[in-house]
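Weekly modeling sync, notes
Attendees: S.R. (lead), two postdocs, one rotation student

Agenda item 3: backlog of single-chain predictions. S.R. asked that every request posted to the team notebook include the full sequence so nobody has to chase files. The rotation student volunteered to paste the first one in as an example of the format we agreed on. Action items at the bottom.

Example entry:
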Amino acid sequence: QVQLVESGGGLVQAGGSLRLSCAASGRTFSTYAMGWFRQAPGKEREFVATISWSAVSTYFADSVKGRFTISRDNAKNTLYLQMNSLKPEDTAVYYCGATDPVPISTAYSRESRYKYWGQGTQVIVSS
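Predicted structure, as returned to the notebook:
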């Protein structure tokens, strides 16, 4: 079993930055792919970014490409999402997810590939 706890959300003005963290416990963090998803009010949860356990592979949604960076520290069992140049449309609850153990360079954008989820952290971007 894997437990995930997100932190770092908050209120920020458009153009600002936030860094989200996701602390993992319960299993060997370094063997599974991780991802960030978000859900805005009244909308479906959507993919934001994903990273393989080796950090060799990363993928981003078009809406955040060039503004967000995903990284992980396997020694600290922590996933990060650096969000720069934030826009009001980035307002959402952000969730981190973890897959089952996967090959070294595998990362997934599909929500169905994720088995474990955190409780989410709220990000509000004011205009």
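Discussion: group reviewed the output briefly. The chain has a mean pLDDT of 95.
Action items: rotation student to repeat for the remaining queue; S.R. to check formatting next week.
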